[in-house]
Amino acid sequence: MKKLIIINGVPGVGKTTICRELYKSISNSVWLxxxxxxxxxxxxxxxxxxxxxxxxxxxxxRSYLNNSSYKxxxxxxxxxxxxxxxTILSKLDDLEFQLYKISLISSPKTLKERMLxxxxxxxxxxxxxxxxxxxxxxxxxxxxITNMSVRNVVSKxxxxxx
Length: 162
Fold this sequence. Notes:
Elements: E1 3-8, H1 15-24, E2 29-33, H2 47-66, E3 72-77, H3 82-90, E4 98-105, H4 108-117, H5 122-131, E5 141-144, H6 150-161
Parallel strand pairs: 1-3, 1-4, 2-3, 4-5
């Protein structure tokens, strides 16, 4: 059975880094970063663009889930609430797959350190730290990456999905 692995978390927590290593560790896998669908200049968040991004994500996920070459579909994005999960998943409910919803969380201190290393602004850092609380009550498996290496996080995910 196909496996859809959704990895979410605040900006800067390490979703892209983890997924880059995760998909390399799994044969017959594909990785979609939801941020790719927002690569636009100027960056404009409005209803038209939100709908377009959701439609594009849905199209890509559906295409990968229907493609016989791939068993594992890895998708990462900043999914800040259950409504976004519902919006994405409701459009895939006619497909058969095993779902894994994983939230990467960390201490505010670790998040700040990592974001500073990435050259993020103080405003971006503060925004991410303030959004950490939204992930606490989500219906996801939480991985606290505060004291974990990338390899250890990937290993933990591999244990879950294999």
